[in-house]
Structure formats: C-alpha cells, structure tokens
Amino acid sequence: MGGEGNGIYWWTNGFWVGVLWQLYHATNQESYRATAEVLEKRFDTALEGFLGLHHDVGFMWLHTAIANYRLTGNETSKRRGLHAATILAGRYNPNGQFLRAWNHDRIGWMIVDSMMNIPILYWAAAELGDPRFTTIAKAHADTCMNTIVRTDGSCNHIISFDPATGEYLDNPGGQGYASGSAWSRGNAWALYGFALSYLHTKDENYLNTAKKIAHYFIANLAQTDWIPLADFRSPKEPIIQDSTAGMIAACGMLEIAKHVPEHEKDLYRTSAINVITACEKAFANWNVDEDSIMSGGTEAYHSGDKARHVPIIYGDYFFVEAVLRLLDKDFLIW
C-alpha cells in the first residue's frame, strides 16, 4: 500500500480493501475477508502516527474497518472507524463551516473530494446517537453546495477561505485544467457525494444538487461517446480522458436512481450503463495475470504521461461497485 512511496497515509490505500469486502459480500469467499482483515490492521500505524492524516480518512476507513464492522460486527473495527471519524470531525473550521483539506499551509482550503469522505461522519452519528457528527457533515455539505457547485452543475475543485473569518478568498485550479474549469473527477466526487448525503439525511437539497451535477456530467459524456474527458472545459487538444471519473459518476447515478420517481430512473440508470459499457470496451484488461482491470485513468489534467491513461486503484474499486450495484450484489460501503 501507499503507491509511489507515499506510505501508510496515502489516501488511495483503502480502495483495494474495499474491493475485497465488496467481493466477500457478493461471494462469501473467506479468502477475501481474511486478506482484508490483515490489511486493515496495517492502518493502525496511520492512526497512531496521526500527523500524516488529512481529509481523506473516510476513503481509508470506510473501506477497511467500517466495512468489516458492517459485515461482521467486529468491535475492534468499530473502534477504529470511530477514531477515524473523530479525526475528521476535528478538522472542522466553524468560522467557514468547512472541513479543511490536506495539511501544512492549506489551512483555509476545502476541496470537492471531501464530499465522499463525510459519510464516515454520518455513520459515526448513527453508531453513537450523537448528532454533532451529522451537524458537521451537513454544514460542510452546505458550504460545498453554495461555493463549489456552480449554477450549471459544474464544480470547482478547491475553494480557499480566510481560516480566521470564513471569508471566501479564491478558487484555485487544482487537478483540473485551470481555475474555473470543470475537472471531471471532481464533478464525479460531488455527484456521488451529494447523492450519499441525501441518502443519510433525506435533505432534498442534496438530491437536487446531485441531479444537477449529473445532468451536466451526462450532457458532456454525450459529446464524447460516454468516455469522460479529464476536464470538461479543457482545450480540444490534447485529448485527455479519465475513466475513473466515469466509474465514480456511474455509481453516483445508480444511487440517484434509487431515490427518484419511477419515470426518472431510466435517465440515471441508462447513463450509468452507457459510461460503464464505453469505458469497459475502451480500457478494461481482463488478463488474470496482470494487475488492475480498468485502465484509462488520469491522476490530474496536468500530470505527465506516467499518470495519464493508466490503471488507478479507485477506478477498479468503483468499476467493481458499479457492476455489483447492477447485479444487486453490492453493499453500502459509504
């Protein structure tokens, strides 16, 4: 774990374990559970070290300890999950009503990725019967809804606030093409994240926001044969794609489909199937002797060739989740 030498704190470490728990749930094959539990224990080093942790603790422990607890009732895993949730809650800035991103000099930064991490707070609130976790999650989601999501359904990646006053300062470009562009994976994080916030709170504003982002996403996919560009507002050349954005968005669309009237479901379900099918045809590698299934992932728009159109573990995770959702064999890892 820890790709490219980033160690136990690296934010993507949980996704492989998430794949294992999804497959364990779908097949009841004990080897998946056994491997997942061994890997889960390694994360204790991150909890103990603490200083390398940031806003992505949801990605790390929802897919490991909390998945374990949900499926097996393991009390040690529950404690690990509550520890991680408390760490995330501790990042809340009450002046700006947001969870700060990253560490070091980014004290006033909030990023769209965090919408997929706040489900750990909803889970903790339910486990403890403690509404303060939900209060923090909803305050953060509201701030994202009002500053990150634009009126047309596109999204910023980063918002910068004055950490002492909460005053809006800027929207840096982040992993997209530039400030004001539409980084597709960020839009996918928001699409799925707001759908999940609706699932946990039943706040209609979150469902409507998820639908608005989905409509923007679907309109752009229709222009590129259902394979997302890395940024929907980038120059026409070079063509840079990102299958991971498609897999995340597909899961979000399938979640939206669960919560809308019958006559609306087909838009989201069919669009999800279209992007899954297109990316599978273009990028899937079914060679059992090679790692990864879904290639075509791009870390960031301005990444070099080594991080463009490559296999990325969260592309695999969301592809597996999407397929299991369609087969009705998934479980809620969020």
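The above is record 1. Record 2 follows with the same two-line structure.
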Amino acid sequence: MYHLLAILTVCIWGTTFVSTKMLLNEGLSPVGIFFFRFLLAYAGICLLWPHEKRFCRSVRDELLMLVAGVSGGSLYFYTENTALRYTKAGSVSVIVCLAPLLTALLAAAGSSSGRRIPVRLWAGSVFAFGGVVLMLGSGDGFTSYSQLRGGLLAFLAALLWAVYQTVVKPLSDRYSTLMLTRKVFGYGLLSSLFFGADTVRTAGCLTTCPEILARPVVCWNLLFLGLVASLLCYVLWNKTVEKLGAVVSANYIYLNPLITCLFSYIFLQEHLTLSVLAGGGLVLVGVYMAVSRPLYL
C-alpha cells in the first residue's frame, strides 16, 4: 500500500516542474511560487486539523522540525524554482533524482549501528542514475552558463531533499504525520522571511497585483501546487517515509523525470526521444531493484 502511495505522490510531484515553469512564465518569482504554495497548504492543514498538537516534546525536536522546514521547504523550493528559470523542466527533474543516492550516502555516513546499505540498493541506484544520465544526454546538455547555473541549483535542491529525508525519518517515529507536515509548512513560511525584499514583494502581490493571481493559469496552478502537491502529497510522503524508511522512499523520486517528460510532451509538445525511453526503462529497473525488499532506515 505504501509503495503505491509513494508512486502516486511522485507522479503528482513530477507534474509540478511543468506547473512551476508555467507560473514562472506568467511573471511570478521563485520565492513567490513557494510562498503562495506553502501559504495555501499551511492554511489548509490548520483548517482541516485545528486541534493537532502545536509544539514538540523537546527543544531539540523543535530545532529538527526547523531544519526539516528549511531543507524540505523554503530552501529546497527556492533552489528548484530558481533552477527552472535557467534551464528546462525535464533537466531539473532529472538532476533532482540524485536525491536518493545522496540520501543513501547520508544514511551510511550517519549510521552508528555498523550496518551497511545492501549491495542491491547501490546497484539499483546505479541503474536508475544511469537511466537519469541517459535521459539528460538526450537534450542539449548544459552548454551555456545559464544552463550550468540551473544544473548546479538543481543539484543543491537534491542535496537539500536528501537532508530533509534524513531528518524526517526519526521525527516521524515520535510525532504524527499531520504535525510533522504542518511544522514543515510553518517553518517553510517563517524561513521565507530570510529572502527579505523578495518575500515582501510576493506578499504585496495579494493586493497590488490581483490581476496576476486572477489569471486562470496562475490561479489553478497555485491551487494545485498548494493543496494537492503540497498539502496532500506531504501528508502522504511523510507517512511513506515513516513506513518504508528514508532510503527506500527516496528511490521513488527516480520516477520524477518519467512523469515530467510525459507531461511536458502533453502540455509543452516536447518530443520523447529514444534516449528518454531507454533511460526511463533503466529508471524503472533501478527502482524495482532498490525497493523490492525491506531495508533499514
């Protein structure tokens, strides 16, 4: 069941690269997109579950919630959304797929039990990452400074997501999925203040630029990102991490490029090449190898 929830969540997240790209083309900033996205999600979870516990049992856990909100919230979406300004949605989704490998490396580095990550997980990750590289090579590559900058930002996003995965797992053992999700949204919004003037301008759009938010393409994409891709999917994903572990669940992110390429083909008329199809096959093989048996963490 939780494997199906992971697939559903990643399928939805795969479409968000296209959705975010559309919002950037409409004039919203990277900060603006994740600010409205998290504002909608936080308001939704507070309205639907108003009696959920508000504070952690210890200061240490509260600080870990802050780290989760920054790594999996504000900084992750700032780097990912900014990367989409400089390069293609498909390329960003491919590079973000490094997150499972980075999660596994963080898990191995932080393990105090002496247990090693199984060889099949590394083999599955290599297969999947090989598919990612093959898909990336099907495009123009990063031949310009702009594309290189986008690629580096996407890599940073993958690293931030790996940190989030690692931090969320022990917290999910002590707190409910709803509380964890609300904390991520709350600290994601709070930490957006560090972006200063950009956040102020974003908040000002609510009153000074209502015509932008009134556009159907902007309105529907923001609602989708806030209520479906954030509120619903973070609840599902945090539950998945709790049940499957950070390493296993992270490997499903390899499915992102497949979904992104499919929706790019449907909505942006981008062609599917033989390299993309072959790379997608390797991705599926790698994910199956990685998650076919239970793993620790």
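The chain has 14 helices and no strands.
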